Amino acid sequence: MDDGLIEFLCDPDLEGRIPQPERAIRFAPDWFRRLDREMGVPDAQGMPGLTVKACLPVTDAFALGYVIPLPWDVSVRVPEDRVSLQFGWTPECTFQPIEQHHPAQIGAPEPPFQHSMPLKFINPWRVKVPLGYSVLFTPPLNRPDLPFTCFSGMVDCDNFATTINFPFLWTGETGDHILPAGTPIAQVIPMPRDALIKTHTARASQSDELIEQADARHRKYHSESAYRREWRVRK
Q: Which of 27, 46, 72, 77 has the fewest CB atoms nearer than 10 Å to its CB?
């Protein structure tokens, strides 16, 4: 396997029938795409007031890794108790895209899960990575608009040769909903295990570090696009 390649493998019968995983930036939400870069009013330092559209760390988070999309359209009925959820999909679905977990698996109905039913997205994609890589599966980053949130997990996909499902909780409104095929359900971030930093320290800043920090703070707030020009590394 190519050392720089991540592969998403599905059953041959599903190829071309379900949305494929893609680079995460392609799933950036409409609310973010619609935003202008500037608000049209100055900020506290007299610089142009900027929206989150101008925040490159947010853009880089949207672009980090890959996204696995929901394979089929799913209807969701959420009652007032937020526990007895009902789901539906068309007969063309070749597998059940959502299943339930036992509530005791998360300690429900004890806090913080008094009004929660643990569910899971059934993921048809095996993730194959080079030897020495693990994969962080996390809810799509910066997506408060999604009506659900997955639990995060890290899997050694170089050794684990099967698919991984995504436990989640419904966080949206009660009532009837449609989750269209292609809805982002999990963000996939591969990382080499030997690159993980495993030691740390916490200490007071030294005098030269305080000067460095004050200088960076001044440039950040008094020079337009300072982060983009001086600090950001293209991903």
A: 46
Domains and CATH numbers, the chain: 7-28+63-195 (2.70.40.10)
Among the residues of the chain, which ranges form H helices?
30-34, 56-62, 207-222, 226
In angstroms, the CA 183 to CA 154 distance is 22
Say if residues 225 and 102 touch (Cβ distance below 8 Å).
Answer: no
Query: In this structure, what DSSP letter does residue 169 have?
Result: E
Torsion over CA of 32, 36, 40 and 44, rounded to 10 degrees?
50
Question: Which residues, listed in sequence order, are joined to residue 184 by a DSSP beta bridge?
Answer: 69
Tens digits of residue pLDDT in 61-71 = 999 999 999 99
What is the pLDDT confidence band of residue 2, given thresholds at 50, 70 and 90? Answer: low
Q: In the structure encoding, which two tokens stand for residue 163, read together? A: 């698919």
CA 79 from centroid of its chain's CA atoms: 26
Please return the burial class of 222, using the count of CB atoms within 10 Å of its CB with bins 0-12, 13-18 and 19+. Answer: exposed
Name the helix (H) or strand (E) containing 4.
none
